[in-house]
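Students often ask what a holo structure prediction actually looks like on paper. The answer is less mysterious than it sounds. You provide the chain, you provide the ligand, and the output is a string of discrete structure tokens encoding the 3D arrangement of the protein together with S-adenosylmethionine.
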Amino acid sequence: MTLFELVKITLDELYKNAQQVHGTNTDAEIKNRFNYLRASYTKLSDASRTPIDYRDPATRFAYVYRYVASHGDYVVQLLTMASAALGGGVFPKGTARVSCIGGGPGSDILAILKYLDDYSAKEAVTKLVIYLLDKEQAWADTWTELDEKLNAGVSLNTNFQPLDVTNPASWTLQKKFLDADVFTLSYFVSEVYSLDSTGVVTNFWQTLFKEAKSGAIFLYDDNGTDDFNAYFDGQWQKAGLQVLAQGSNENWTPRYTERSDVLDTYKNKFSAWPKLKGYLSYRVLRKP
Ligand SMILES: C[S@@+](CC[C@H](N)C(=O)[O-])C[C@H]1O[C@@H](n2cnc3c(N)ncnc32)[C@H](O)[C@@H]1O
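The corresponding structure tokens follow.
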């Protein structure tokens, strides 16, 4: 299955959830949420902004429709870069552990499963333990729908854990997610960049990098803005991580195997397209 096909299954469920909340106003609400998200993403560096609220199913529909397939595909591409840099598999044989920070919408977990499916000759993973860590509990529902539909070919153990990087009480006592072989930070740094005026988010990054195990891989990708890159570069450089691959402000598209035609019904309904290209910055990092 392609990422767009998986996204379609989830969208059908989310659309029903949105109808339960918004009834005959569902389509209008979803259209509003496309605009809400687009406008919100232009203000991410504004410290006075109100954080984005993803709770409503219409907002979650808008997010998954617009962003999940392309963001997932970018993470697949970063995993292939990590594999090339390491000269073999990214994951250990047998059980692999992945922690997706800000991974509630499912882009990151889909990417891991798609990568393991596409590159099964290189990776000998039989069991996958995934932690989805996100402030918004409502994403757990969205992800559950995804998980039930996935036929990953590996034994899958998934855990959704509420975690707010601005609230140390939500992460100081959680330790298991720090055991990961791979951490994904997909379009997450930009989301919390402006919330770091007190240093609380820096405290999270430094704890994460310090307590992760030697050899852990960190995959950062985000929307290309120099402010976010400089901020994140400062964080991982301070922690002494190594760069395996990097790029800034590059024009990226999903791989040609990913086709969005499967979403045509929704394209026609909303006169809106899933994101198919964008400026991307990425860092593929390893803890020595
Ligand atoms: C732009 S989305 C990225 C989602 C996904 N990784 C992707 O690439 O599509 C940002 C995610 O960060 C979560 N988030 C926002 N603020 C957060 C915080 N303070 N702590 C943890 N998660 C947060 C949101 O709920 C949302 O799921």
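The first helix runs from residue 3 to 22.
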